[in-house]
Amino acid sequence: MEKITKKVIGMAGVMFLCMLSVISHKKMVQAESIVSVGDTWTNGYWTEYDTEANHMYQFTIPSDGKVTVTCQSDISWDIYLMDKDCAESYNHEGSRAGGSETFSEYLKAGTYGIEFEPDYINDEGAYKFKVQFTAVSCNVPEPNNDFVSATPISLNQLQQGVLTDANQEDYFKIQLNRATTLKVVTTAESNREVYLYDGDFVNIRTTDYYYGGAGMFEEYLSPGTYYIKMQQHNGYDTPYTLKCVSYQYVTGIQLRSSLLVVKKGKSANLLSAVTPSDATQKTLKWTTSNSSVATVSSTGKVTAKAVGYANITASSIDGSNISKMATVIVSPAKASLKKLKLYKYNKRQISIKVKGQKNASYQYQYAKNKKFKKAKSIRSNYTSVTTSKLSKKKKYYVRVRAYYEYNGKKYYGAWSKAKSIRTKK
């Protein structure tokens, strides 16, 4: 009887010690279930036929950002990044015994779970993992996952958010006070979709799908309320930016004239106006078809270089594809008589020579009076001519002007200063 009593007491003692061990083990698991974020490794050991509950951990990130999980183990394994209660998996990775793997996921601020499990529950071995965190800039408040909770935004205001498995959509609300072309510009590391809705929640823009990098679409809109939805694509988590810009395209270019006459050596402004007056990009691109005749500055100032014509074109650079062309006629400068003498073979004829201007023709005029009444003219492409036989011993006045002919019309320069000469017998 005494031996039986001792056995019972001994067995009770063993059971008590086992209970203490279990209680101690549970306390240890609970103490290790909260892990820090950083470069510190969390160590664990999987015992044969252990349960996942003993290998579930929690960590907390203070803001939106990128979580990176690295794991190593002596046994074949899988590790899961999960929600706070380890009920839903966001991402996971696994490896054979002795392997090491790393994976990343973007998450909103909050508490999340880590669960380790072997490929075979009868395995036994050590493992370790660490959770690292990199914050990302985010000024998008939560919740904003529907039209009612949409975040109000303004033009030219940069929005920074994160799309994740737990936050697959962000809605934004914008008010336009006037008709405008709305440019919606986004950037992201990974894929996303962008939707545009009117004030009645009707989709007015077909889904625009963008890969990682920048994306932009534009839509001409009347005044009113509009909604923009950023949506995760195919489970790709990504930080993103969103910016809405009001853009007024150039609708018209007005030039001073479609045919502008400028004297050689002079300048004139060709631009009259760009419409609308509040166009976002009013700068124009100016080109000339013949820079040896006329050049044009970035503001539309034309400088006449030589007699002739050039087509000057002003084009918008904002994507509206508006352009306007004008023909610039460079008329000759004031002519200058270079030489005036009697013809060597007949002293009743006058030889006239003018200082030449490239591309110009000339009108020579002579008369017996200073006012050139009843004057006679000679037209020539040459810089020197000889008159027909004139009256003998008479004083004649001579002048000349250059001209340029375009489409049947003559454009004249100023008359030269008149000179006189007297004929002989």
Task: Please name the defining characteristics of this protein.
mainly beta; 425 residues; disordered N terminus; five-stranded mixed sheet; 34 strands
Please give the radius of gyration in angstroms: 45 Å
- Major β-sheet annotation: 5 strands, mixed
Q: From the helix content, strand content and strand pairing, which structural class follows?
A: mainly beta
Number of helices: 1
Going across the major beta sheet, what is the strand order? 9-11-16-13-14
Q: Please give the share of residues in helix.
A: under 10%
Mean pLDDT: 90
Q: Which runs of at least 5 residues are low in confidence (pLDDT < 50)?
A: 1-31
Overall morphology: rod-shaped
Q: Whole-Å distance between the termini? A: 177 Å
Report the β-strand fraction as a percent range: over 45%
Number of strands: 34
Task: Explain this structure.
The protein is mostly beta strands and 425 residues long. 7% of the residues lie in helices and 53% in strands. The chain is built from one helix and 34 strands. The strands form nine sheets. Strands 9-11-16-13-14 form a five-stranded mixed sheet, with no helix packed on it. Strands 29, 30, 32, 33 and 34 form a five-stranded antiparallel sheet that branches. The longest helix has 31 residues. The N terminus is likely disordered.
